[in-house]
Amino acid sequence: MAFDRSKFIPRFIEDANDHLRAMNRGLVSLVENPSDSSLVDAVFRAAHTIKGSSRMMKLIHISEMAHVLEDVLDGLRKKNIAYSHTVSTVLFDGMDTLSKMMTSLSQGEETEPPKKIMALLKQAAQGELEDQVDQEDQENCPDPKIDSEIEDSLSPDTGAVVRTDTDVQKDDGNVSRDSLKKNEISGTAMGAVEETIRVDVNKLDALINLMGEVVSTHKKAETHARQLHDLFLTVDDFKPFFEKKEQIHDEENSHAFEKFFHSLHDRLKQLDRKMQGYLGQFHPLMGQMQERSLELRMVPLSTVFDTLHMVVRDLCRHSEKTVSLEVSGGDTEMDKKMTEHLKDPLLHMVRNCIDHGVEPEAVRLKAGKPPHGTISIGAGIEGGRVCISVADDGGGILVDKVAEKALSRGIVTESSLKEMKPLQVAQLIFNPGLSTAEIITDISGRGVGMDVVRQNIENILNGTITVETTPGRGTVFHIRLPETIAIIHVFIVTLNSVCYAIPASHVTEIVSIPANEIFKAQEKDVLRLRGELVPVVSMGEVLGHAPFSHGVDIRKETSVLILISGQKEDRLGMIIDSLLSEEEQVVKPLPLHMRGLHLVTGAILSDSHGIILVLHMLHMVEQAKKIHSPVTASSEKEHDPERFPPHILVVDDAVTTREIEKSILESHGYKVTVAIDGVDGFKKAGEFAYDLIVSDVDMPRLDGFAMTEKIRAIDMHAHTPIVIVTARDSQSDMKKGISSGANAYIVKGDFDKNNLLETIENLLGL
């Protein structure tokens, strides 16, 4: 019978991805410490192990790829070749290629490595690689931009990968709104690959020991339960005697009855004491079992953090900046299910730090900073919560620019903006469509990332995210998450005799104060808490219960119970009727017919109070703020019906591209006019006030940059959004796009219709 290796594929993929992560860590460290031979040895061993395992599995192409990587590393070990930037780049590209091959394998297909990268690695192993890889080689190497399938293949979840047809469309690692919002990986995991997780044997031993104690205690309880049942049968035997009342008054029978009663009392007392003791043992045992069971799903955050080194490296190559990544707290553990949902938000924040935060080298030097930027990611446990920080030492968020953009997009009103402190204004970056980038690119600036990052962290991970910024010194994102989403700590409160559950993670404190301490400030109910004014609303009013009349009904009470949510300037108080209890509960999803409830996130089953809805506190706070400020910017800003649908001018000399863009835009409700080149585009722009213009760059007679400059000179198009869609992907061309007056820059090689549509919606304020 032939030996079936296919059943070992899942384990091979899991092991290989572990070694790929080790290679990534080693190569990143080697860049900073090229003379450290121990790092070369570690990366060599990882490549060697993959080669040996793949050869055992008869995976010839993977084995060949690992072999040439091993040859280069062996040359470095033996000092036969010198470590250089070029050798480092080729090693990284080889590792990236191997990662892609692992991704293909997890989809059931073993692919061949590109001949060009194999040739480069062989040259490197022989010491024949030139100092600089020529342009042709660079173009044939794996794309230096971030490739999301690499990230997925290096993620701790080996069953979750993406299969991408690179001949049709590249994936540059840009996290789109759809991918972030769904937070799930397109396609299913390889059919044969079951989701697995490595568990420390000590954790299993602890759980098994606990199970032994539970079984032992259960057997003792069973024994006494039988004794209790026997006692019941004894009492039942005396039932006929009790029914003959005259016998009870007989002196002899009376004495027997008294003796029986005392015996019964003593035995019941003894059983009760033992049963209570067992219950007392069961409670901590079950708690420990629950805790130990959850620990089995815990993985170190390093499984996520380690993949970000490659992200930073590739982004730096694309942005022409030099940034180092410093990571601490990677041994902090978190539920594996949560780490899967954490990867994309972290990826987007790191990309934001590089693209928007860290300044170009010349700007940093002028400001007296080191030429190289730094991104720091840290993690730790505080108060039972996992706290993650993502910081950069860049220029900080331009708060005034955020305020200006938020006002222009109708996110806030002038009156509410005047009341906001700088820290509160900075939080506006989490609103949809808000970006302060000078130009929108396929990497960032479309304003469709930070809002979805917040949605993922708040809605899926049940956490919070805030931002702090210091002009000229940098920005820090603070993320607070529960260690697991399996069980949450909730407060059970009542409103109009109805019970609700509130996640403790969103409660800063609960205070009871005299009702007369609530007073009016700028026509709003507030209380003074430790010297700070905190807005107050009725939670019942937020939920649509009978509302308090802005303080009148409140003051009829002698005291009120107020739940405080939020931090610093963003705090809000909600009045509740009573606090019943605190509980650890498993949150169940809502049934389909209830999933449209905006203010509810799930339900719990409480022993004391039955089925209770769990409130979505972040949405509750947003709703409460609307009650406090009923006039919103969105109500002030209305679209002119005569300007809809928006009219877009598409300028491109390539008929196919022109028609594709026209078809995409018309299918989404836009009115489209086309121009065949720059001269035609400029002529048509002078004849009509288009709402937006989409243009190519390389066109006969007049290129897109020059056309944009000329269109900007037309009064009616001085502020019309212009989107450049081009094959040019260099930083110098993007800068030229900015100087010419374009608002967005999308690279054709990475063209994604969703990027184009989201960019247009953002620029038009739709």
UniProtKB/TrEMBL annotation:
The modification Phosphohistidine is found at H48. One of its GO terms (molecular function) is phosphorelay sensor kinase activity. One of its GO terms (biological process) is chemotaxis. Its EC number is 2.7.13.3. The modification 4-aspartylphosphate is found at D696. It is an enzyme of class 2 (transferase). Residues 647-763 form the Response regulatory domain. Residues 1-105 form the HPt domain. Coiled coil: none annotated. One of its GO terms (cellular component) is cytoplasm. Residues 285-485 form the Histidine kinase domain. Gene3D superfamilies: 3.40.50.2300, CheA-289, Domain 4, Histidine kinase CheA-like, homodimeric domain, Histidine kinase-like ATPase, C-terminal domain, HPT domain. PANTHER family: CHEMOTAXIS PROTEIN CHEA, SENSOR HISTIDINE KINASE CHEA. This is histidine kinase. It comes from Desulfocicer vacuolatum DSM 3385.
